[in-house]
Batch of 3 targets.
Target 1
Amino acid sequence: MKSLAKLKKIKGDASFREFYRNRENKSIIVISKKEKLKNLLIYDAINKILVKNKILAPNLLSENYNNNYIEINDFGNQTLFQILKKKNNNKFIIFKKIIKILNKIQLIKDKKVKNFKNKLYKVQEYNNKILFDEAKLFCDWYAPKILSKLKNIKFKKKFKLEIKNLLLKLNYKNVTFVHRDFHVSNLMYCNKKIAVIDSQDALIGNRAYDLASLIDDVRLKTSNEFKEKVFKFYVKTNKKIDLEKFKKDFEILSVLRNLKIIGIFMRLAVRDNKKKYLKLIPYAWEMINYRIKEQNEFHNLMMLLKNDFPKFVR
């Protein structure tokens, strides 16, 4: 690898990774010293699965795992988020294209792939334990910053019980390839095609999860009418869905995901001094507020959040 001084550092994300652009090779150097198994080895393994299924994702150009880096394709620096932020575009046409990509991802049957160390990697199941641990980040990182110590102890106990109850109400089995961070900031626009990045967290889980992370994306504000329109388009392109069961799963997973995100954003601010994510928390609350009014399953959770976080849950 060239000396880092000769490469252009590019804006990173919330992970423990650094990205550098190599203009000569038209490539990106991904460096990760922490969590390097996931951020380098597993990332490439998942990309291999995506590419095999004709989804545009980064190819591995070179690797030096011992020195904590891999080199992958450069898809440029235009995300769909940047395109959608502009006012003079048809958001719905872009979202229809995204849904077509999501449908392709959800048809993936491959669960095993050889990584660049020539070892077999198996994509794990997105089980209820993982979903529970993720939602718990809300009471591990966010709640202690807002509530008194005594109040937080009581809240934590009730919150965990409610999350377990919600998880038991999920209908769809864990049989679908889930990107797990499927939103417009992780979709690049390159040569009039959409490329998928940041797929290292992919698991085999509930088919409603990626749709929830796309529609109820904390970074991109859209109207409730627009969210409904995109949801209906997805359902229209997936005729075999049981609408009632799927919508229930979609709403449960959206609420759990946004609770997790609030916890993660607080953790980023407190532990990693990445305070820019705090400004996204109010919109995550807004979406939780919107979804928990949708169905009776959320009554107990709504009362609990309303009691302890009245500023956000009305």
Target 2
Amino acid sequence: MDKKDVKNNLLSIEEEQLRLARKERMNHPSYRLAYDDDDFFLREDMRALRLQLEWVKPDIIQKENNIESTVVVFGGARFKEKKKAEQQLLKARDELSKNPDSEESQRKIKIAESVCRNSRFYEESRLLAQKITRLSQQHGGKEFVVVTGGGPGVMEAANRGAADEGGQSIGLNIVLPFEQEPNPYITPELCFQFDYFAIRKMHFLKRAKGLVAFPGGFGTLDELFETLTLIQTKKMQPFPIVLIGKEYWSRLIDFDFLAEQGAVSEADIKLFHMVDTAGDAYEHLSKHWGK
């Protein structure tokens, strides 16, 4: 091999080494585009940016869909429509018949019976959403758009009621340790998913002209009391808040006791109104809206 061939071989080896070095750098995580690098984007010190994006994305999409105002519907995810509630009760009774001395089976029966009684709230939520959506359609579908947490139960019923009337509705779903999927009645382009409860709550209230709270659990209470606190402390303008299910709410929380103890004022108790039916709730809301 002459000197020229040796030189060419050395050059080829050097070029290959450079090519491999270039490829190594291009494949390194540091070379990825920042917005296309999940490992980087999901770092703890990128939390502030993720929070910002969770705010911006749903906000832009709602603007693009001309959503100007909403009506928030909160309520229990575990309160089923009557048919499904009755199926749950039948299953519980079957379990008890096989093991009549089981305290667990007896407890399930009591819960299933309560779920059956509370199934009326599913129907009331659906009916109320129908009424609100008809009003929304009188405003081109831009105002008074129903928004829920996007899950099952009372939330599903509200989205379903809007769909019954051919109207759009919003679902603000949340990532949870257990499986959480959006209900099938949300308008597809208005179905959002959140990782952060705080940003989700901000979206519930940004465009809200009213809030309806059906019976529910910790999540419903959290969202209701945050709203009441924001209005009480004048962090946001007041709007009508309706609690549906007088017996449920009165037994769950003794609001008068709070006032008697000086924990809240008499005026604070007037920030919300209790009713029993969708018709009464809509009447109260529409009076405030002047409709």
Target 3
Amino acid sequence: MEQHFCQSCGMPLTDENRGTNADGSRNEDYCTYCYKCGKFTRNFTMNQMIEFCLQFIDQMNAHTGLNLTPLQAKEQMLQYFPHLKRWKEKDNRTLAEKASDLLAQCENVTVSSIDANGYPRPVQMSKIKTNSFHEVWMATSADSVKVADFRQNNKAGLCYDHYGDGVALRGTAEIVTNDSIRKYLWQDCFIHHFPGGPTDPNYVLIHFVGTEATFWINNEFARFSI
């Protein structure tokens, strides 16, 4: 019997691992890890899918009887994946839309402030709200070093990446203490850091807005002002 492979990740297809269409029927092209209920499970680019698959290199080698290094496996995927149905079809998303999907996949971002000596100070933070690919809200303590930096100098950098694709932004950061906004963006898990709840005086928001962007998405490099 002819072996069929997932037309997204290249996994061998069986009756047990096939994806499902919108009506619940079995899909003949994609595995359940890539396709469920008539939709792809991840808004990946081809490059992201390759990077994602590389984490399963040991299972791949065990299944095929090969002993490929991650570099060798990646080279093979770069040759093979463009022939799969999902990646042969043109991705009509704009670069901004791809970047927005990328940001949605990221739990954390890296934010850089400028300290009193003029040096960048990057820290990783959890995002709590986004708008498009260049606007991010984060929660932090009013007495933190980064808040002191931004109060002195609102110039900021922010970057995020996921499975090989990434975006770097330059812009400004505003410290938000407005009670209605703080309440609107409050999350229950914040109580561990701010026992006073949404009105805790030490609970503030950082609102980053990018004005310049550098993209590296699906091996495409671009830079422009927003």
